[in-house]
């Protein structure tokens, strides 16, 4: 007994140590609670969540995107944090499948808990899961389709993937329309996964149907007074420089003068300095000047006299993107014009969207660039539409690189589960229990999709399993008709890369949580009484 007490004293007073069974319970419970939280957002009939922050302004987010929901939660349970992380990584890596990855990891842990209660060692379970994940991935690999050589077929694949991704989001009503937008935007990228050249502008007003894709670049700024409203064959200088030094800054400077005329001299000198700077800028042979910072009235007049369009206070992302798409550099000194790379575009004009005036750059140097303008009833709708569209764009840009496609609607899970089942029957020893559990966890995803749609999941999954025992079945759950449907005819497709990422990340996360046998919570730092 004294030995135990000694052990307790090693850690600080308030540190908490949970061991063995209790630690494992805590991590299982935490992870499953997180999985159950996002479970209801899965599938075409998934519901949304309202997240209200406790900060200033009490901002409200309405979302269906697993990663966004989990990012906004403040979680104390260490195992639950692991799941939040995998959904974040899934979002950054492939853009979609953020909910599925958490649900699958939660189901794997739920099955693992039963196995641990049967006195099977966690390492045995992990070894079984590893084998099962490898087997599941190979099963999918054999069933992928690849149409990258046939352009029309590949485009219809992309359309199907985009519609499948959007069908569980707010855009599901107009999914054909938005899928078309997303596919057009991604095909313009010509295989790059850099989504920066696709700009998404949100303008409240109108309905979601009024959204459109615009070739070129739109800057959310007004054109200054007395400046040309339309410029053809523009040479654009993008800059980040202070254009407000023509007035003495009262706060920062202390100037002692004998008479008022001296103040006038100082002001004249300041103005002269500004005029020289403007002349240097005009000397670049430009007819459009876009600045990150303020432009005061005096330089603005000078630009207007020279017939140059000057835009002030463009937001930072806008500046970087503008420089990127027009092929220019962001300049901050103007002494040697030959070293500054100017941006070019064919036409700059002012357009109206709703009640706002914006500046439209068309015929930009980088042909990939385009702007998607989203219209919608309110800010919340627009934010959610942007998240949904972003998911679709991510998935499509990944698919353009890795062109393998599989069916959706619970079909891939059933294919994997069938192969994993057969592996379990062939494997001797306790591992086979774990492999069997993996196959049950995979079937949970179609089960949840059916449950969320209010269908009889037990009945549907058993029918689905029977169908999949026939060779090359393409049957999955058709939520719209409320029964089984042929995924090939319905055109429900997913990217292979997304599914592969889901299976591998979920297995690794479950593995990590299974390995835990002790949780040590550090003692909080005490604040000394500062009296």
TrEMBL record:
InterPro entries per UniProt: Chap_CCT_beta, Chaperone_TCP-1, Chaperonin_TCP-1_CS, Cpn60/GroEL/TCP-1, GroEL-like_apical_dom_sf, GROEL-like_equatorial_sf, TCP-1-like_intermed_sf, TCP-1_chaperonin
A single GO cellular-component term on record: chaperonin-containing T-complex
Main localization category: cytoplasm
Keywords: ATP-binding, Chaperone, Cytoplasm, Nucleotide-binding
GO molecular-function terms, A-Z: ATP binding; ATP hydrolysis activity; ATP-dependent protein folding chaperone; unfolded protein binding
Positions of transmembrane segments: none
CDD domains given in the database record: TCP1_beta
GO biological process: protein folding
Annotated compartments: Cytoplasm
Entry-linked PANTHER family: CHAPERONIN (PTHR11353)
Family, per entry: Belongs to the TCP-1 chaperonin family.
Function: Molecular chaperone; assists the folding of proteins upon ATP hydrolysis. Known to play a role, in vitro, in the folding of actin and tubulin.
Protein name, as recorded: T-complex protein 1 subunit beta
Organism: Triticum aestivum (Wheat)
């Amino acid at each position: 007994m004294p030995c135990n007490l000694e052990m307790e004293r090693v850690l600080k007073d308030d540190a908490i140590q949970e061991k063995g069974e209790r630690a494992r319970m805590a991590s299982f419970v935490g992870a499953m609670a997180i999985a159950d939280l996002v479970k209801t957002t899965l599938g075409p009939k998934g519901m949304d969540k309202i997240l209200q922050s406790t900060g200033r302004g009490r901002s409200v987010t309405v979302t269906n995107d697993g990663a966004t929901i989990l990012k906004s939660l403040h979680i104390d349970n260490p195992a639950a944090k692991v799941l939040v992380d995998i959904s974040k990584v899934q979002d950054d890596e492939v853009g979609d499948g953020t909910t599925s990855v958490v649900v699958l990891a939660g189901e794997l842990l739920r099955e693992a808990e039963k196995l641990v209660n049967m006195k099977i060692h966690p390492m045995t379970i992990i070894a079984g899961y590893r084998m099962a994940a490898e087997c599941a991935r190979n099963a999918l690999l054999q069933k992928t389709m690849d149409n990258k050589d046939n352009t029309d077929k590949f485009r219809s694949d992309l359309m199907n993937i985009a519609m499948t991704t959007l069908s569980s989001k707010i855009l599901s009503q107009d999914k054909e329309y938005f899928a078309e937008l997303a596919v057009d935007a991604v095909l313009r990228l010509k295989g790059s996964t850099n989504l920066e050249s696709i700009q998404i502008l949100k303008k409240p007003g109108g309905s979601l149907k009024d959204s459109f894709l615009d070739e070129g670049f739109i800057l959310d700024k007004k054109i200054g007074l007395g400046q040309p409203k339309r410029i053809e064959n523009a040479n654009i200088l993008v800059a980040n420089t202070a254009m407000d030094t023509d007035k003495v800054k009262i706060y920062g400077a202390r100037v002692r003068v004998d008479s008022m005329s001296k103040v006038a001299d100082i002001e004249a000198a300041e103005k002269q300095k500004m005029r020289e700077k403007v002349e240097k800028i005009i000397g670049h042979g430009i007819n459009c000047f876009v600045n990150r910072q303020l432009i005061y009235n005096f330089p603005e007049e000078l630009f207007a006299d020279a017939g140059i369009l000057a835009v002030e206070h463009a937001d930072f992302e806008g500046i970087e993107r503008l420089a990127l798409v027009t092929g220019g550099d962001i300049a901050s000194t103007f002494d040697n014009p030959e070293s500054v790379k100017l941006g070019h575009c064919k036409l700059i004009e002012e357009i109206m969207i709703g009640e706002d005036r914006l500046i439209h750059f068309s015929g930009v140097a980088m042909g990939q660039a385009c702007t998607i303008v989203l219209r919608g009833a309110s800010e919340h709708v627009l934010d959610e539409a942007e998240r949904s569209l972003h998911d679709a764009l991510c998935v499509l840009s990944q698919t353009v690189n890795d062109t393998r496609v599989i069916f959706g609607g619970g079909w891939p899970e059933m294919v994997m589960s069938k192969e994993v089942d057969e592996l379990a029957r062939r494997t001797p020893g306790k591992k086979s229990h774990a492999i069997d559990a993996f196959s049950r966890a995979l079937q949970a995803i179609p089960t949840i999709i059916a449950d969320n749609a209010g269908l009889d999941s037990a009945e549907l999954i058993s029918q689905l399993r029977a169908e999949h025992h026939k060779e090359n079945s393409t049957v999955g759950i058709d939520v719209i008709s409320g029964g089984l449907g042929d995924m090939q005819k319905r055109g429900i497709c997913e990217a292979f890369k997304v599914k592969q990422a889901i299976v591998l990340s979920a297995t690794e996360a479950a593995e990590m949580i299974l390995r835990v046998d002790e949780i040590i919570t550090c003692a909080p730092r005490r604040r000394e009484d500062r009296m």
